Amino acid sequence: MADPGIGASTHPRTRAPDSVCEADRGPACDHAGVNDPHPPGRASCSRCLRPQATCLCALARPTAHWTEVLVLQHPHEQRQAKNSVTLLRLSLTNSEVVVGERFAPAALHALLHRPGRHTRLLYPDVPAAPAPSASQTATAMPWRLVVLDATWRKSLRMLLEHPALAALPRLSLDAPAPTLYRAIRAARRPDQVSTLEATVQALATLEGPSFDAAPLLDAFGRFVASVAARHRPRDGSGLA
Fold first, then answer.
1. Do the beta carbons of residue 143 and residue 95 sit within 8 Å?
2. How would DSSP label each residue in 77-112?
3. Which of 47, 55, 58 is nearest to 81 (CA)?
């Protein structure tokens, strides 16, 4: 559909696989707690970790929210230039991103559950991975929203291989808003949207009118337009 160390974080950051995850490690960069997904020798922004030519920091829109957001990002998405999670991480003040494919049970449990928070997984109820039976949940406690950032096939595999994920109460988007993402990335299902769009819609569902996503969605639209412009043919033929 991608955080910090095991402790709580009040600012967005990304941590690559280490003791939390069984995935292979990448080369460490000099940004504390972060692995640079771009090859050495290529100038990258130290904040968004993108090549300087495609830095996203100017598009970041700090967005207030009280729901904690944990994004579990598949390693392939970390290297995807069209991925929306970097902009999401830069903009959500209470978000965290963990990169990995397979997680050790104890470490995953620590990531999913935080004292004083109810955890929900943003994922549809599908036949291949049915949602657990709904239970009555007191809403006085704030939420911790878990989001999988991966292709449909890879996110389903992550869910099936981690019983702790599959056991979480689900939050499904019954009627996702039309996506801007199709301009730069194909989708297999008509209801698929970007991770950023899905997370924003989920936060609006949990927090109601107090959550203002308009500036971030506007910035995402400009991100999509800039990516689409870079992939247009330059010969003037207009052919895709």
1. no
2. HHT-TT-SHHHHHHHBTTEEEEE-SSB-HHHHHHHH
3. 55
Q: Residue 195: CB partners within 8 Å, gap ≥ 6? A: 1, 2, 71, 83, 84, 85, 88, 147, 149
Among residues 48, 95, 59, 11, which one has the least CA distance to residue 215? 59
Element (H, E) at 15: strand 14-15
- Asked if 105 contacts 111 with a C-beta cutoff of 8 angstroms, the reply is no
Residue 204, both tokens = 């609006």
pTM above 0.90, yes or no: no
Q: What is the pLDDT of residue 8?
A: 30
What is the rounded CA–CA span in Å between residue 202 and residue 196?
A: 10
pLDDT at 189: 60
- Reading the block at residue 174, the tokens are 């019954």
Question: To which H or E segment does residue 76 belong?
Answer: helix 75-78
pLDDT at 3: 31
Rounded Cα distance between 86 and 56, Å, is 8
Q: Are 196 and 203 in contact (CB under 8 A)?
A: no
- Name the stretches of the chain with pLDDT < 50: 1-12, 16-36, 235-240
Distance (Å, whole) CA 201 – CA 169 = 17
Per-residue 3-state assignment (H helix, E strand, C coil) for 175-237 = CCCCCCHHHCCCCCCCCCCCHHHHHHHHHHHHHHHHCCCHHHHHHHHHHHHHHHHHCCCCCCC
- Cα dihedral sign, 181-187-189-193: negative
